[in-house]
Amino acid sequence: MLEVNRLKSMDEAVSLKQKIVEYPQTLFAMIGSSGRSVKFVVAYTYPDGSLPRSRTDAEVFHAHAYRHALKTYEPRLSYSIELKRPVLEMDCRLSYDADVYYNPDVLTIHLEQPVAMPDESTYQERFEKRVPVPVESVG
Q1: Parallel, antiparallel, or unpaired for β 26-31 and 44-45?
Q2: What residue spans define the domains of the chain?
Q3: CA proximity to 20, closest of 103, 119, 120
Q4: Is pTM beyond 0.90 here?
Q5: In the chain, count of helices (H) and strands (E)?
Q6: CA–CA separation, 91 vs 27, rounded Å?
Q7: What percent of the chain has pLDDT over 70?
Q8: Coil vs helix vs strand at 2
Q9: Nearest 10 degrees: CA dihedral of 78, 51, 111, 88?
Q10: Distance CA 52, CA 95 (A)
Q11: What is the DSSP string of 12-69?
Q12: CA 28, 34, 35, 40: dihedral to nearest 10 degrees?
C-alpha cells in the first residue's frame, strides 16, 4: 500500500485519486479518512501469476514490490509518496470515501522472486539526527 499524504484539500485528493486509478496496475484506491490523503495498492505477482508461499519469500517479494511501485508511481504522479517500512501487515484507518476504487481486472506487474532484501532501503530516514559538535574556543 502506497500513500500520498498532506494534500491541501479534498478536491486535490479526488483529483489525485482519479490520476492513480487511470493506471491499470492499480488494484485499489481510496481517499484517506482525513480527506487529505490517497492510499492505493498496486498488484504484483510472479511471472506465472502466483504469489510467494512462505512468509520469508513473501517479505522479500513485498519489499521489492513496494520499492518498485514507489519508483514507478512517484514520478508519474508528481507527488511525494510517504516512505514506510514495507511490512506484510500494513494497515490504515477506514475511509469515508463513498467511491472507493477496486479493479478486479487489474493488470499485475510481474516480478521474479528476489533472493534477498533490497540493498538500499527506500523507507530509511531521509535525514539523520545531527548531534551538536562542541566548538573549541579560540583563545
Answers
A1: unpaired
A2: 2-110
A3: 103
A4: no
A5: 2, 6
A6: 16
A7: 81
A8: strand
A9: 40
A10: 29
A11: HHHHHHHHHHTSTTEEEEEE-TTSS-EEEEE-EE-TTS----SHHHHHHHHHHHHHHH
A12: -20
